[in-house]
Specification:
- The protein is α+β, with helices and mostly antiparallel strands.
- The protein has one domain: 2-Layer Sandwich (GTP Cyclohydrolase I, domain 2), CATH 3.30.1130.10.
- It has 4 helices and 5 strands; from the N terminus they run E-H-E-H-H-E-H-E-E.
- Strands 3-1-2-4-5 form a 5-stranded mixed β-sheet.
- It is elongated and about 50 Å long.
């Protein structure tokens, strides 16, 4: 399947970090999502019911990460992938989380993780 629904640079404020001082202050992260989904029915019907609603995907992610504290973006990425795979009828998902504050003191624009998960 090569069709994808894309959400890039979704900005969220969350409690994230290994160290307590990191978790005490909310920080911004950016999330990119690629949802592999056959869009053929939606192209034929021109109906939102035949595709993945971007607003709903964004809300799932927002509810998950803005109401919980995480130490690792690895854990966060796994929970995002699992939640989206369970809620939406997609074949595969790629989740990339970018943490711009992680290494900014040494000149790194962002540190992050990217995972690929599927129903198989």
């Amino acid at each position: 399947m090569t069709d994808k629904i894309l959400l890039y640079n979704c900005k969220f404020s969350c409690n994230l970090g290994v160290y307590e001082e990191e978790r005490n202050l909310k920080q911004y992260i950016f999330i990119d999502l690629k949802l592999f989904f056959d869009i053929k029915k939606a192209t034929e019907s021109d109906s939102i019911e035949e595709t993945i609603n971007y607003v709903e995907v964004h809300q799932v992610v927002k509810n998950l990460i803005e109401n919980k504290s995480y130490k690792l973006i690895e854990t966060m990425s796994e929970e995002i992938a699992e939640a989206i795979l369970q809620k939406f009828k997609i074949e595969k998902i790629i989740v990339r989380i970018k943490k711009p504050q992680a290494l900014k003191d040494v000149g790194v624009e962002w540190a992050g993780v990217e995972i690929i998960r599927s129903l198989n």
